[in-house]
């Protein structure tokens, strides 16, 4: 907090208070004579493929695309953004019939328009590579989940074959409800730790799995996104990618159990996501 208060971007005296949420960064609300700001604190996390130069580029591009707040100031490990006075969505909010089309429009705008404003190097977030890399990390660090590693990586490889062929967009890649804000007039998409080029089906599958969408809602989202009736082939590829999003979240948590110092129950998060992945994969195999 002393480091944040010493940043050169403030107008007059600044006050800080912690913001709840966030399982990758520390977050604060800052207020000075000019306004209120959200401050994100976090270094590179190579084991999770989080590189802050990429996150910063994505935030600038997302702001230019009209889907994210502006960056006021940034230096290594610290980013200061305009604070959005808003309601953070819950999974129940996301599932509301009037909300889902607005969210899909927001995500599609990120996918389509953010790449027009990207500068410098940009990463690819290829979920199947991430799954394989997580498997290697868990083996190297002798994770207590070791007996599952070979099976989970093999399932990821099979899902990669099932999910193709692939289109490519600039994905957010972390569509938790907590990363969606509603200011009463418009929606905002925040937190670009994992942003990078990816299949649009990863964000659509992640949105569904993270927020408990029904099958009918999933079909409606796909039709709204692609502006066309859903084919059996698209549903099959989408279901595979949805499984992959849950598998990645499970293995992300397994790695975080070993590496994170944040106060969060990663073991419980692992168990919940592993159960959700098993059920999703069973459903996929019976399609």
Automatic annotation (TrEMBL):
Gene Ontology CC entries for this record: cytoplasm
Biological process according to GO: phosphatidylethanolamine biosynthetic process
SUPFAM superfamilies linked: Protein kinase-like (PK-like)
Domain of life: Bacteria
Gene3D superfamilies in the record: 3.90.1200.10, Phosphorylase Kinase, domain 1
A single GO molecular function term of this UniProt record: ethanolamine kinase activity
Annotated protein name in UniProt: Choline kinase
């Amino acid at each position: 907090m002393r480091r944040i208060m010493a940043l050169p971007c403030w107008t007059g005296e600044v006050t800080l208070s912690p913001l709840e949420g966030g399982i990758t960064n520390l977050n604060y609300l800052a207020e000075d004579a000019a306004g209120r700001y959200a401050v994100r604190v976090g270094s590179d996390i190579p084991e999770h493929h989080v590189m802050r130069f990429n996150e910063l580029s994505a935030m600038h591009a997302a702001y230019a695309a009209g889907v994210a707040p502006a960056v006021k100031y940034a230096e290594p490990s610290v980013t200061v953004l305009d604070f959005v006075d808003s309601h953070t969505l819950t999974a129940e909010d996301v599932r509301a019939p009037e909300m889902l089309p607005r969210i899909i429009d927001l995500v599609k705008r990120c996918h389509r328009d953010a790449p027009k404003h990207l500068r410098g190097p940009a990463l690819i977030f290829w979920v199947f590579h991430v799954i394989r890399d997580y498997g290697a990390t868990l083996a190297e660090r002798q994770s207590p989940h070791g007996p599952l590693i070979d099976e989970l990586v093999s399932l990821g490889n099979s899902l990669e074959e099932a999910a193709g062929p692939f289109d490519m967009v600039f994905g957010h890649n972390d569509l938790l409800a907590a990363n969606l804000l509603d200011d009463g007039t418009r929606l905002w998409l925040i937190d670009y730790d994992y942003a990078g080029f990816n299949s649009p089906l990863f964000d659509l599958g992640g949105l569904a799995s993270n927020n408990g969408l029904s099958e009918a809602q999933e079909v409606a989202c796909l039709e709204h996104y692609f502006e066309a009736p859903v084919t059996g082939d698209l549903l099959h590829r989408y279901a595979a990618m949805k499984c992959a999003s849950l598998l990645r979240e499970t293995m992300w948590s397994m790695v975080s159990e070993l590496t994170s110092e944040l106060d969060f129950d990663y073991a419980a998060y692992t168990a919940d996501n592993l159960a959700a992945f098993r059920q999703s994969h069973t459903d996929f195999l019976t399609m």
